[in-house]
């Protein structure tokens, strides 16, 4: 069963279309939703939660119709909003318990679940402090905890690393990964940082201008490039010359001691072994080079949506 599906989903405002005939299917696991600001990500999430009506088209979440089953969807789905919306004068425990009860949990169960989720996000020792005294990273963790407290089947996380420093981003990504792997909860996570989605997503969906640009597994997007990368102890220039003389295309790597060799078959491994043995050069690392998610923005589409422009901009998308 698809976790999320939309069919020709459209949302129009007087002067702009936020979604324009969006059709997609999202399965179980962790799915990254990528797009520039204004591409329709937040509008899509609000429609999926039954909080915003679509102009036309249809959408289903956990096989429930977003038009008629919004309350049931919100009971079974957790939502972490992008913007700071936490009351400063209550404790994390009070807030998470309250929202757990609003999701239908009995008071005793809500308290138990609140303690468990706050422990999971690393706030157990700070759970009785008022949220107004929390750092940005702690506030993001509270938002994640309230999305998980009612044991949802799916969580939607809107820019969960927003405002975090690099260490905080790493910790949040680790938590998101655990949601999918340890707890078996499906995740839809939005981000404009492709490297983040590369680390945690099983599937990536790219939208632009309210239209679907790509939908592919992360593994497919990061498939092999037909290049091996090797790092040698010394004499990299001589190694490159020898391999080129054998007919292999050699590309300078990110550092002087690193070489990328394009190949059609595994015979390149024999060539590398023989070359290094002949020169008496040591091998530090040898591995296939794979695509990064950022590269799917720099290449023409290869799905059924060919002809649509892909947003560019390296690792970040506005």
Give a quick precis of the structure.
The chain has helices at residues 41-48, 70-76, 92-102, 107-120, 136-148, 166-181, 194-200, 218-221, 236-245, 267-279, and strands at residues 4-12, 17-26, 30-34, 56-61, 64-65, 77-80, 154-158, 186-191, 203-208, 211-217, 224-232, 249-252, 258-262, 283-290. The chain is α/β, with parallel strands linked by helices.
CATH architecture of the largest domain: 3-Layer(aba) Sandwich
In N-to-C order, the SSE pattern is EEEHEEHEHHHEHEHEEHEHEEHE
Number of domains: 2
Say how many strands there are. Answer: 14
State the major sheet. Answer: 6 strands, mixed
> Strand fraction band?
25-35%
Show the helix and strand layout.
Blueprint (H helix, E strand, L loop, with lengths): L3 E9 L4 E10 L3 E5 L6 H8 L7 E6 L2 E2 L4 H7 E4 L11 H11 L4 H14 L15 H13 L5 E5 L7 H16 L4 E6 L2 H7 L2 E6 L2 E7 H4 L2 E9 L3 H10 L3 E4 L5 E5 L4 H13 L3 E8 L28
Structure description:
The chain has 318 residues and is of the alpha/beta class. The protein is 32% helix and 27% strand. It has 10 helices and 14 strands. The chain has helices at residues 41-48, 70-76, 92-102, 107-120, 136-148, 166-181, 194-200, 218-221, 236-245, 267-279; strands spanning 4-12, 17-26, 30-34, 56-61, 64-65, 77-80, 154-158, 186-191, 203-208, 211-217, 224-232, 249-252, 258-262, 283-290. The strands form 3 sheets. A 6-stranded mixed β-sheet has the order 6-7-8-3-9-10, with helices on both faces. Strands 2-1-4-5 form a 4-stranded antiparallel β-sheet, with helices on one face. A hairpin with a 5-residue loop joins strand 12 (249-252) and strand 13 (258-262). The chain is globular and about 75 Å long. The relative contact order is 0.14.
């Amino acid at each position: 069963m698809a976790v999320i599906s939309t069919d020709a989903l459209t949302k129009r405002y007087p002067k702009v279309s936020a979604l324009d005939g969006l059709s997609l299917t999202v399965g179980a696991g962790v799915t990254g939703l990528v797009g520039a600001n204004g591409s329709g990500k937040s509008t899509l999430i609000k429609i999926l939660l039954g909080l915003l009506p679509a102009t036309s088209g249809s959408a289903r979440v956990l096989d429930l119709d977003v038009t008629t089953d919004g309350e049931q969807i919100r009971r079974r789905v957790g939502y972490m909003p992008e913007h700071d919306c936490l009351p400063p004068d209550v404790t994390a425990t009070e807030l998470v318990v309250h929202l757990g009860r609003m999701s239908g949990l009995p008071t005793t169960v809500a308290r138990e679940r609140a303690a468990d989720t706050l422990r999971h996000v690393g706030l157990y020792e700070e759970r009785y402090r008022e949220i107004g005294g929390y750092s940005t990273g702690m506030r993001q963790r509270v938002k994640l905890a309230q999305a998980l407290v009612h044991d949802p089947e799916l969580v939607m996380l809107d820019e969960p690393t927003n405002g975090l420093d690099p260490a905080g981003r790493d910790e949040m990504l680790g938590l998101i990964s655990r949601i999918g792997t340890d707890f078996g909860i499906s995740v839809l996570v939005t981000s404009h940082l492709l490297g983040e989605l590369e680390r945690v997503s099983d599937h990536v969906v790219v939208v632009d201008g309210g239209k679907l640009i790509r939908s592919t597994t992360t593994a497919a997007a990061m498939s092999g490039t037909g290049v091996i990368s090797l790092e040698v102890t010394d004499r990299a220039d001589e190694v490159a010359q020898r391999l080129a003389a054998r007919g292999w295309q050699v590309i300078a790597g990110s550092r002087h001691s690193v070489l990328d060799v394009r190949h059609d078959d595994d015979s390149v491994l024999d060539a590398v072994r023989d070359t290094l043995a002949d020169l008496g050069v040591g091998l530090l690392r040898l591995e296939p080079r794979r695509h990064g998610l950022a590269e799917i923005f720099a290449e023409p589409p290869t799905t059924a949506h060919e002809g649509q422009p892909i947003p560019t901009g390296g690792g970040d998308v506005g």
